[in-house]
Write a structure and sequence with these properties.
Blueprint (H helix, E strand, L loop, with lengths): L5 E3 L5 H7 L9 E3 L11 H10 L6 E5 L2 H12 L8 E5 L6 E5 L3 E7 L7 E7 L5 E2 L1 H7 L6 H5 L4 E2 L5 E2 L1 H4 E2 L6 E5 L6 H6 L5 E5 L7 H7 L4 H11 L3 E5 L9 H8 L5 E3 L5 E4 L4 E4 L1
Parallel strand pairs: 1-2, 2-3, 3-4, 12-13, 13-14, 14-15
Antiparallel strand pairs: 5-6, 6-7, 7-12, 8-11, 9-10, 16-17
The structure holds zinc ion.
Length: 285
Amino acid sequence: MAERFFLIDCGEGTQLQLRRYKLRMGKINHIFISHLHGDHYFGLIGLISSFHLQNRKNDLHIYGPSDVEKIIQVQLDAAKTQLGFQLHFHPVDASEPQIILSERRVEVTAIPMRHSIACTGFIFREKPKDRHILPEKMKEYQVPVYDIYKIKKGEDWVSETGFTVKNEELTAPPTESLSYAFCADTAYAQRTAIFTKGVDVLYHESTFLQTEKALADKTRHSTAIQAAKVALAAQPRLLLIGHYSVRYEDDKLFEDEAKTTFENTVAVHEGMTIIASADDITIKE
Ligand SMILES: [Zn+2]
């Protein structure tokens, strides 16, 4: 994917972990907040304050519930802090899917989750890429350089003398565009599979094991099996599960349970890196 540094949620430990894993904090220009339970945003004011102390100049965009702006603003005002960079708040409506960010190479969609308060997941999709030019064909037909842009976009080529060459003869298909869906705190919902159908990597919360299903229902969270059921319908290449309740000591229990329903599951933990390409997905510890 085009190199972008997107931060999804910002719990109180986020800044420490960014430092610990030597991630370039200053490169984060977009932060997505799923909902206003503290474990998902209590680190936000701290991160913004650190950016300020580091003399950040780049604009920072924050996407999330409309109350995020009020909460952050009251904290900045109380401290009489005048940030040296622009903060842009983008309120996200949690009732229906909507595109919240569209750049040249990537598009982000917010999707509703089923939780105890308004909550959204986020889907990150690379936009369709250009087709690959076949240099030998350019030579063969003596295609002028200024026509290449349109050919990359898929157009047929018409020569000055008026003959047409089909695009398929001049190009190879583009590199596959990848996608990642982050499904935040949510109870099981069939619609989640509809929204995330066909993404390459799906993250779905899995707070409980199936033995605690009643508790999962009550607190509007999911079990590992339920996360896997969503994956079974959405058919990602890989399912990631996380957000485990502290009552369990071993993440592996979640992976084992989910795998009974969806084999390609990995139980994630802090510091893991997932590298996806069109051909494979690798995981680095
Ligand atoms: Zn929550």
